[in-house]
Structure prediction request, 479 residues.
Amino acid sequence: MTDSDYDEILRLLCDRLSTLTNSELPITPDINLITQLSIDSIKLLNLIMEIEDTFDISIPINGLTDVQTVRQLADLVYKIKSTS
Amino acid sequence: MNLLEKLDSAAAARKALLPDGIGAFGIPIEEVYSATEARIGNRRVLLLGTNNYLGLTFAPECIQAAHEAIDKEGTGTTGSRMANGSYYGHRALEKEFAEFYRCSSGIVFTTGYQANLGTISGLVGPGDTVLIDGDSHASIYDGCVLSGADIIRFKHNDMVDMEKRLRRLDDRTETTLVIAEGIYSMLGDQAPLAEIVRLKKAYNCILLLDEAHSLGVLGETGQGLVEQTDLLEEVDFITGTFSKSLCSIGGFCVSNHPQLEQLRYVSHPYIFTASPSPATIASTRAALQLLRTGSHLRKQLWSNCTQLYAQLNEAGYQLGPDPGPVIAAVVDTPQQALLLWQKLLEHNIYVNLILPPAAPEGKSLVRCSVNAAHTAEQIKYVGETFSKLYSLVNG
Prediction:
C-alpha cells in the first residue's frame, strides 16, 4: 500500500458519501460522519459492507468506535488493507 | 453536549415519535388473567406480544414446584454460583439440560442475556474473531463487545456473504467463533443451519447456536433447530433462555467440549451476579419436563402460527419468509407501525412495536408472538382485525 492507495481510498469514500447523504456540504476528509452528515447506525453499517466489498476486506464493527470523520474511516480501511 | 444533555436529546427524539398516554414501550400491564389475556388500562386484552410459546406460564406443575422451592429454600440464594449460590436445583437443572441435548456439560446462567454474554466473552477474547449474523440479538452483540474480539457481521442468513467473510479471515478462522440463532426474533425466520455447519467445518471454526426462540418450538422433543435439522452433533455450543418457552427467567449453555466447564472460572456474567432463585430453578425444571413431552403443545402452536401467518399474508402484509411463532408485519415508517399498534390495542390486542434501529433494514415492525394456549377463535379475531386495519395503515 502506498500514499496514492491511501488517497484513492479517501477519494472513493468521499464520492460514496456524497451520493449516500445528498449532503449540501462538501464532503471533506475531516467532515464528521454523524454530527455533520447525519449518518445513522444503519446507514453506516450498510456503507461499511459496501466498503468491505470494494476493498475485499472485513472491518470489525468494534473498530468503528473511534471513527468520527471520513479521514479516520480511510485510516482504518488503509490499516486493514495493508495487513490483509 | 454534556452527559445529561445527551439523554435529554434521546428523550426528545422518543417523545417526538411516541404520543402521550399509554406508551408502546414498557406498557403497564395491570393484571394477568391467563397465558393469553391481561388487563392494560381498562382493557381486557389478548396477549399477542409475549414469548410464552407453549403457554405454560400458569402450568400447575410449574407453580407447585415454585411454591415448594420457596417453602423449602427461601426466596433467593443471595449469592453467585461461584460462592454460595449453587444449590441442588441449579446443579440438577444443568444435568437435565446436558442430558436433554446429549451433551457432557451444561451451565445455568441467571438470565438468557447473560448466557450469551457469559458464553461468548468466555470463549473469545482480544485477537480472536466473532462472525455473527447481521440480525443477531443484542445479547450476542453485547457479548462480542465484552469479549474484545473483532466483530465481523455477515448479511442476515446470506451464506454467500458469510463465506466471503470467512475467506477474508484467512488463517484467522481457527480462532473464529461463528454465531447464529435458531429463530431470529425480528422476522421469525430460521438460520440455514445445514449450510452454516458446512462452512464452519470447511473453515475449521467453532459454532455457537442460540436457540432462545426455537427451544420448545422446533423439533420432536423441542430441542430447537438442531433437532429439526438433525444437526445436534455438529454444533459446538448451544445457548438458550428460560424466559420464553420455559416461562421463567435464566439461561443455559450446553456443549460436548470439556472446556465449557472452564467458563465457570473466567466468565464474569456467570461469576459476578446472584444465581437464579430456588423458585425460578424449580419452575424451570418442571417446565423443561413439560417441554420435552409437549409435542401436543407444539402441534397446537404450529396450527396457530400457520393460521395467523396465512391470514396476515392474505390481508396483504409484508411478513418474514417463514411462518412461525414470531410473525412480524413489516411497514415502511415508524408512524405506520405506531398507528397499527395503537389501533390493534383499541381492538384489545396487544402486540410488540419495534422501531429503527432495532428493526432490520430501517423498517418498522408490528410483531405478533403466537402461543399454544391461543384458541383458534382468538387467532381468527387477531387475523381479521389486522385485515380490517390494512388499508388504514397502507392506504
About this structure: Chain A has three helices and no strands. Residues 3-83 of chain A form a domain with the Non-ribosomal Peptide Synthetase Peptidyl Carrier Protein; Chain A fold (CATH 1.10.1200.10).
